[in-house]
Amino acid sequence: MTGPTPPPEEAERPFRRVLVAVELSPAAESFVRDLRWLRTLGTTDLVLVHVRQAGELDPEVCHARLRALGSYLRGDGFEVQQKMGTGHPSKEVARIAADTGASVIVVGSKSRREGHTGDVALDVIRRSEVPVLLVRTRDAPPDAPAMDPLALDAPSHPVPERVLFATDFSVAAARALSWTEKLVSLGIRRIDLLHGRPPGGTKKVEAERELGRLAERLALAGAEEVNPRVSPVEAARAIMVAAADDPLPLVVMGTHGRGFLSRALMGSVAREVARKVEAPLLLVPD
Fold this sequence. Notes:
The protein is an alpha/beta fold. Helix content is 37%, strand content 22%. Helix 2 (26-33) links the parallel strand 1 and strand 2.
C-alpha cells in the first residue's frame, strides 16, 4: 500500500512526520524521553504505534498507556497520533508508516550489553521502505512504575553534534548520502566520512579520491567540517570504533535492498552495526 505523497514544502522537511514504534513498559519511558532531540531535526508530528500481541495487557490498558505517552509528548510540543495494531509487529509498523505518510521510522533497541538488538527492530529495518532510526533504550529499574513523571522529566538523549557517514560507494550509500545532506541542511555541521577497506577491497588511493569528492559535495551543502578517512579494517569494525568517539555521532549508512526483505538480503555490515553500535543509527534503504 502506498502512503500519501507529501506536498513539495514537506519534502524539504524530511523528519517532519516520524513514526515511533513503542513498547508499553517502564523502559518505554526512557525511550519517549529520548525523542525530544528530534525537534532539532524539524520533527513536529509523531505517530506512536504499539502492536499488541496475544496474551499482552488488556486492550483498554494498552490504549490508556499509549494515550498517556501521547499526552506527555504533546506537552513537549509535538502533534501526536496514536495507533494500535495487532499481528506481526514489523509488518504492522511498516504498514502504518505507509498509511500515515511517515518519512522515518524510529525504533528503540536494547543495549549491546544485553547481547543483541531486538528481533523486531531488525525486522523493521528489513521491511521498511523509509529510513529507520535506531535509538538505544535506557534500562528502567525492574520495579519502576509505568509512566513515572520523574523518569519522564529526566534529561533527554543528547542532540548529535556530528554525523558519521559510512560508505561503500554503492547505490545504497548514495541514497544515504542524500540523507546526510539533509541533516547538514538541518544544522549538523560536522560530518565524518568513513570507508572501511579490508584486504582486497577498493584501492586506498581510489577510496581517498572518492571520499574527497563526497567531502566537496557536503561542503557545498553547508557542512563546516568534513573529515574523510579510509580505514584499513573491515567496515563494521571501522564504524563501531569511529562511532564510539565522544561525542557520540548520528551514524548514517545505507542498506542493500528495500521492502519486504529476507534476512539474507539485509546487508551484513548494517546488521552487525545495528546489533552492536551504541550511537543512534539511521539506516537508509536503497
